[in-house]
Give the backbone structure.
Amino acid sequence: MTEHPTSHEGRQPLAARPQERTRPRQEAPGPADDAAVAAPPHGRPHPGTGPVPAQPGPAAPPDDPDGPRTANAARGASRTARSASATRRAAGAAHGDAQARARTDAEPERPATCGAPGGGAPAGAAARVPAQSDAPAGDGATGGGPAGSGPAGGGGAGGGGTAASAGVPQDPVGTARREGDRLRFVGAATRRIARGIDLDEIVLGLCRATVPTFADAILVYLRDPLPVGDERPVDPFVLRLRRADRLRLTEDDPGDLGLLPAGTAVAPDVEQSPAAELCEVRPGGHLAEVLRGVRPVFGDSAAARAALPELLGEGPSVPAGHRAILAPLRGRRRVIGAAVFLRRPDRAPFEPNDLLVAAQLATHTALGIDKAVLYGREAYIADELQRTMLPENLPQPTGVRLASRYLPAAETARVGGDWYDAIPLPGSRVALVVGDVMGHSMTSAAIMGQLRTTAQTLAGLDLPPQEVLHHLDEQAQRLGENRMATCLYAVYDPVAHRITIANAGHPPPILLHLGGRAEVLRVPPGAPIGVGGVDFEAVELDAPAGATLLLYTDGLVESRLRDVWTGIEQLRERLAATAQLTGPDHPPPLEALCDDVLDMLGPGDRDDDIALLAARFDGITPSDVAYWFLEPEDAAPGRARRLARRALARWGLEELNDSVELLVSEVVTNAVRYASRPVTLRLLRTDVLRCEVGDDSPQLPRQRRARDTDEGGRGLFLVNRLARRWGATRLSTGKVVWFELPTRS
């Protein structure tokens, strides 16, 4: 019912005064009766509805001659008293109307108070909710009194009357304090919920914020699976118990505000009754009807009594009185779950205004869950995009060991333009690539993916490093304006122990020698990719066995706190210090070295993506390499077979004699037919046996199916059938045809 404003002295509600003025006039007692008004304790005026008439005094004897005069005087005094009383009532009414208008103007909203354990207002609790005229009109929500529950608040379970309507004096100071507590509670609870980023953090924030301040136990059910974005929900759907927290009841109770395992007690008055872990919500069911509503309902309402058994299972019983609240969790125009707040029997029940508190908590939780689901989907897409654009597993070619790291600029930006790659090349060589596209957006990641694919294609053509950068520059210009990137491309030859490097505006690599000395390699910097019209230069350097080459992007060495060259020098010193820990004859492990390099970054040092590629040069020993020159003559195939047989015997690979002799004879025969200079034959023993035949003819061989009457055309067919892998690479001096056979040793 609606609460009537009263005067500041707590007299009769203003709405009742017109009835008092229309009351028939009665004979009033004598003037002395005003002094006989009943006084409350402490001698203060009674905060009631006006003067209470006292019992009339004794009448004069009938035979008294002064009786008529006494009666007339009494009637005059009575009229005077009635006039004075009416004047006082009119003044109080006017003052009360002004007081009510002032409160109405100053208090457009009415806070809702939740009771703390024991019936008082919770310490540190609260939320601003709409005025009482906007309170939800549902089960148990029609009454709306001042804050407080139980003895402290003056209201009983389910009581909808107010203190004023019951004639009980109000405590403005206590009411304001409880309203402030309620505001602080909901404010603190919503802030805790909003701090969560992922789903579990948000649900945990709701549970920890409400137990034990607002409830003694809470259960949170969420849809499984949760809809994402604007996906249309399907019916029926399943609710899964995501988390359940409860208050510790005894010293031996282990569930002190912690996670309750599935199947543990949830209802405060049924401690050992299990809650259902899964609940199917069917259209038209009692639970579906409650969840379709926007407002929470008390557990003892008709709708909740029918819905809670579906949600909690058959074990728990609904607590008696207003000691349970079922609150729907509604996200983007759909139900995403439900929350159940429970109180123990020895605690004051929930009040109608607590429904508004539960509604605010449920609203903030549902919005947070919606955002967390969207964030999780975006993070998944970003991770998948980055994973597909970077090598999932680095190759481990013979003669070199590799390790890598990638860190995005921030957790909220999981994709960027940095990339690294390792591409095996013919002759047991390997191409090492690291690049950085300008920006940290999806566009940068897409450009990075195209440049990486282009670099892989160019590497397969076995082009020199400077030509690879030239073609990457042309590709970046075709992608559009301002498509800038830096890139460093290096080719390592484990047989010659040499490395060829070309740079396009990228930070120089650092070479860590076996003895612990670290040096910044002097590589011509070049212009970034995308500038256009710039020539790139390559340098060839020694790559001794046991040395480690570190390729990186500028995010590792540049930040707001230092320039790029200061960062490069600090990185060089860090590598040298790390190498000293393992001694001069033992290089540091690659994985540990990468982690140690990243540890040099402070909390505020990372402003950009970081890509890191480390290569340990082991090389191939000369004893595992056989190399010959063959004159382009008819006797060359026979000589090649004899040389190959001797090398296989030295390596203990006699079981490959037949296959190697046949394939070497076919490939050398083709080379001698078109070559004008000596033909080269090289055998490499690693985890496979690799054979390479080079000549000065630029024409690559093509496999074709020979007819029965053809004299040739079957050599490459045999190579394709017997070799595990084979191919042909065009060089600046001609071409190389190679094949590989697995070794059984």
